[in-house]
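Help!! Second protein's tokens look totally different from the first
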Amino acid sequence: MVPTVPIRCPKCGREHVYAPPSYPCACGAPVAPAVGRDATPEPVTDRTWAESWITARCAACGHEGHWPHPELDCSCGAVLRVPVAGATRVPPGHPAHIPLPRTAPRPRPAFHPVTIRDARDAVTVAALYLRWLGYLNTRSTTRRPPSGSRIAARGMLAQVEPAPRPTAPRDIECLWLTALTEAGDTPVACAFFSLAGYTSEARTRADSLGVPLFTMDTTGTPQPVNGAAYELVATGA
């Protein structure tokens, strides 16, 4: 269990009991940034790539990975960036595993929609859509995310979120990090499918990471909602 620490908001003075989120390392061990008990958070005013990500070492295998910088939402409306011990910021720029843009269109037949009545149908539609894009041999992953379901194919990891709430930035980051840790010699792209759409912060984070976002409704035809998604539809696998 990740130890909790008291964090006081510098804007309103309210004290929170905070535990930083953990993410899976490539070795399978959970990695949680170390937050000191005397940590003084900073209000987030402008987001930059370098401030949003840190490099931290896995205690189990020693691997250094890129993780989201811990943040805390205070009830006063402030978003607080929590200082982390023993971590360094990630240099500006996109990680090398994200595929470079391609512009050549790839002809394919029209997608045949399937009516979505429940969460299982949503997963089926996402799997069919990935196959339509050229990602064959889709399958459900054995490691389930905190919410929704994940589908894997060669070179692709997708998450399907059927919950009635808009997808948040952390959901996007968790999917991106999982795709990063599963990438070996072959890059693994990722895509997100949501029935309730995305918060504006989630769309901003997805754009910065190059994660394609799709929405789905009962008609059963995924719709791209950001540039990465439109490019994926245009180029396919």
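Here's the second one for comparison:
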Amino acid sequence: MGVQERQQKEKMILDAAIRLFTEKGFAATTMDDVAKSAKISKGLTYFYFKNKEDLYLAMTKKAFDELKDVFREVYKNKARTGLDMITELANNYVKFARGSRIYYQAVLDFLGTVQLYNDEHLRQKINPLILQSEHFQKLLEMHHDCAKIGAQMVALGTKDGSIRAELNPEVAFYTVWAMLIGFEKLMGPVSYEPKDTKIQLETWKPGFTKLLQDMLKGTFQAVKVQPVQTSLF
């Protein structure tokens, strides 16, 4: 079997798995389902992917590749300031998260798995089939790639004056990334009615962007509260 044919069959199987993971969820999907959807024998499916976990990690790698493309697309236009890049990236990141749900969830799942992997005691909680997948090691090697591009955007901003010069690019970008993950996760709760808090998604989104920009530009200022004389009655 030639390389091109092998790659073609791998793609057919992976595409089928992604469709099923999206429609049915990971737990409800079986390798039989994948083989039938891909119109490939079950034996051949196992030849290319050891198990369902291996397939999910292959999809996760594809998800990181797609997310990296989002970063690259923003960074390639060097005519803008670093702050403009980060602002555009924030908007495109949320679009990716909302528009590619299965990919974005796979990214978050892997980041959570890495947190367990870094602790020898917690590592035992990871499914052994995940650790045995060849895609797992590849993901360990590449999962910082997006942040590296993001840090380059921050570094560019510190040079062109749009971002505070004293910021560490890596620390600053990982802080931005943490904010974006939190923002995306809270979009649902903020949009849900009824709620006691006086906040709407339409006003929160521009407010979040402004706060992010102010943090990077350094326009935060400590305000000294002046004592006010007043009467309770």
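Reply: Different proteins will give different token patterns, so don't panic. Confidence is low (pLDDT under 50) at residues 221-233.
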